C-alpha cells in the first residue's frame, strides 16, 4: 500500500510540473523561445552587430563585403517538450537600397545579405533544453554596392540607417510573412523588436550603417622655386627665357575612385604690384621696379587678384564623377621676370608669393 501511495504522489507531482510549464506566459507546448538572461523573462532576442562606416570602404571601389555574425549574447533559447525548427529569414532578401542625401548630392547604395543557414532544429530533450546564444547565432555576409537610379527602399539625410538583416522566426510566422518586405513591415528596427508582442518572432538582428562621403580635397605642399640669374639689360631687352615649374598635387576624398565634388584650383596673391599685367613682388625683394609674371602651360599670363576670385584663371579643374586617382597629380606653372616700373628699375633680388586654393561649385 505504501508503494502505491508513493507512486501516485510522484505521478501527481509530475503532472503538476507539466501544468505549471504550460501556463507560463509567452511559453507554449512544443516551442523554443528566447529568454533574457539578465531579466529572466521571455522576449525577442536582440543581436548587437558592430556599426559599419562605409565612407572609407567605398572610397576606391564600388562595392564592399564583410562577413560578420549575429551576436545574441545575453539570451538563451529554451525549448519545451517537442522542440522546434526555427527559420532564419534574410531581412533584405532581394536587395535593400538606401538613398543617402548629403547636401545636394544623392548616393544610392544597394545592400544584399546571405545567411549561412536557412533553418535549425532545436530539440527539447526529455522535457526542456536550454541553448546558449552561440548555438543559435549565424554568420551573415553583407554587401554594399553603389548603384545608379532613383528607386530606393528607405532614405537617410542624417548619414546613418539601420539595416534589418536577420529574423529568427517560427514556421507559422514565416508562412504569414513570406517576403522580406512583409517582415520589415512588421518589425524593422531593434527598438520595435524589443517592444514586440509578436509571439512567433524569436530573434532580430540589424546593423547600423553610416555613410557621409568625404568631400574631395587636394593638398599642395609649400613650394619654393628660383628663376635663373640674369642681367637688368637682358630683362629690359625682353630676351629672358621663361621658366616652368611642376607643382605636385595630392587629392583625396573619393567615392569609387571618383571625385565627389566639382572644383577649380585658382590662385591669389597679396604681392600684386601691377594689377593689369598681374606682376608680383614683395618687400623682401632688393631690386626695384622688377617683379614676376606667372603664366600657364600655354604661356598666357595667369589672371588673379589679391583675394578669392572666381574670375581668376583656373589652374586645374575636375567635375564630380571624374577619376580622382589619375586625373590630377600636378600643376604646370611658369614664371618670367617683368619690369613694371622702368624709371626705377635696379638690379637685385625679386621675391613674390601666390596662394593656390580650391573653389567648389
Structural overview:
The chain has 361 residues and is α+β, with helices and mostly antiparallel strands. The chain has 2 domains: 29-210; 217-360, Immunoglobulin-like, CATH 2.60.40. 16% of the residues lie in helices and 40% in strands. The chain is built from 8 helices and 26 strands. Strands 2, 3, 6, 9, 13 and 14 form a 6-stranded mixed β-sheet that branches. A 5-stranded mixed β-sheet has the order 4-11-8-7-12, with no helix packed on it. Strands 16-25-23-22-21 form a 5-stranded antiparallel β-sheet, with no helix packed on it. Strand 18 and strand 19 (258-259) form a beta hairpin. The longest helix has 21 residues, at 2-22. The radius of gyration is 36 Å and the shape is rod-shaped. The N and C termini lie far apart (99 Å). It is found in: Fimbrium. It comes from Pantoea piersonii. Keywords: Fimbrium, Plasmid, Signal. Residues 1-28 form the signal peptide.
